[in-house]
Description:
The chain is α/β, with parallel strands linked by helices.
Amino acid sequence: MREPASESVEVAPGSLHSCIAALIAAGDCGFADVLNALRQFVDAPTAPAERRLRLFLRHLLFLLESGDELYADCVLRSDDRGRTVLIAHRIAREAGEGVMKTQVRLAPWPLARESPALAQGAFAVHSHDADIVVHRGPVRIEAALQDMGVPVDAAALRDDEIDAFYAHREALRRAVRPSGRGVDASWYADARDDQDRVAQACAQAFEFDASDGERIDRGQPLPAIGRATHPPLGAALHVLPRLLSPAGPGSVLQALAMDLPEIAAAGFDAVLLGVVDRQSTDLYYVEGDDGALHPYLNNHGYWSSGECGVDPALGEADDYIALRHAAAACGMRLIQDSVLGTMGYPPQLPRLAPPASRCTPLALALADQVSPLDEPGCFLGGLESCDAIPSPGGLALADYIQVVTRTHLGEYYQLPRPNLFDPQVRERVLARAQWQIREARVSAFRVDMAKHLGLAPLRAALDALREAVRDADAAPFVAVLEYWSLHYRELRFALSAVGPPVEGVYLYDFPLAHALQQTLLAGGDWSRLLPAIAEQRLHWQVPPCCLVPIVIDHDPSFRPIFNGTAHTRDLVVTGLALALAMSANGPSVYCGYDDRRAAPAELDRYFDYSEQHARKAMPGPLTRDPDGPGAVFARLLAAVKLHGVLADWDGGALAFEGDAQRLRIVRTLVDGSRRRTACFCVARDGSAATAGADGEQLVFASGEGPSVALFVG
């Protein structure tokens, strides 16, 4: 880990490349440091700067110093290759221009050429030995992408409110990063200790190249992992309760409880319930590079205030307890989504705060105890964000340890981050989930953003939840970790990082989700992509019994596919069938069902519209619409259960037969001493049901293009 930054940033005269690199290496430079560093190329007569660069910087400095400043800050962010970019942005009220935003990205590599999306719509770009990309535009309120549904005028902020908006943001910045200079000594020690834990987990997770012990080669087998430690999980329906709008007088949770028998009848064994915590705010303005402020509605529930109990918008504590008991009565598991590593955006302006909020604008209520964001040791800030780990090709161990440590420790989404390394803070954060265990006997959790918690806090949190479940004498503990990665190497690392023990801890199969998306929406060759998935699991020693397949998530990469047409219905069913074919557990199904009025008719425009336009209440539409994928998937699940396709799979090799037009996936089933086979067939046209082999019985068929069939033999 980098040592804490010094009290001032010294940048020696030299090339622009070295100047930007020094600013980034400082760890947490201030806005004034960036200005001073750039001035040296304008003012110092011996600075080796070209005339064009001098003119560019002279104009840039004019933009960054003109007008009455309302807000200015610098942050470090990483691109999709894990390389660090320094971002400086300033808001100022300028004569004749109004309130203007100027944002500058600085990178000691060809930013504009290698990351063109970051330079799209740029006001100016300098590209030579280093890159500077400038965005500039008036601060303005853009129209909301959805019906906000809250009594707030999101169309405009008055001039005085724009000033107050940025005054509040400045106060928040000072609270979150009171020193403005790097990481304090105690946090640096925790970060260094966590880096040691990453190194230990790597030693347990990987084998190394025999000719070069510093390069990761493949995964080490996990001892004693199987159905005894990871029993089969059935299909789970992901429900975001803040999207539900009950027709009757009851609460959201009461209405959902009424739907549970219908969900169970549709073949689901669990409901993955979105976050039910009390929220800090319902509306947040997302700030674009060019000054656009987009009103964004909290319809997901991840902006927790830190208070225990249930969000009043969803119901009361008794409603939540009754919901868990209703799920058990239907033979279903309630998996509770839980966010531990980040907290909600504090209200940006008093008039934007929900009336029932108990949180002050610069504080959150951890376990009902108000905690200002500048409380020493309670919240973390100023750490570099990193989400992308480089692809697996021959990565050196030392480099891998560095980037994984940064991934686990970096701040994310600029949300307040509690210091989970402090046992007292961690105990207060976990109080929300422990309340759910104690009061409602919940025993299964989804842990959001698990790879951004730090290894020590992640292990400690799982141990604490497991102990609370045991003390409550509830059902066996289950945790499904959202450890986001498209590489099985990271999932193999995670299996060593979270244990011991690893019993009952599952990971989402995001590499499979990506392959399915490429297959279904980008015309990918499933006869090439899916065998590669099986090979990578074996190479990195990730047992399928530890993986929960996911097809359509609420992440922008997994927006709802179904738009009311038979073709998109067949696409959803095909994706779910392939998830079952490739997995030892049932899929987690997120059906962000559209209303058929906002969604595009053409599938090639699928990525052009936001799920914010189209998501409606569920699970009703999924289970009741005769034209939707729910009824078809229910028949598939019934066949899978009847023939033990999940429960009896030996977890071994899959056999693939076919090509890009039609594919058969054959798996061996073991029922005592009897060995059988199950074959999933998918076809681009309607021919899947005709692809059975001798001795195979057709037990399910659906779709015209693509089509799906299940055979048993």
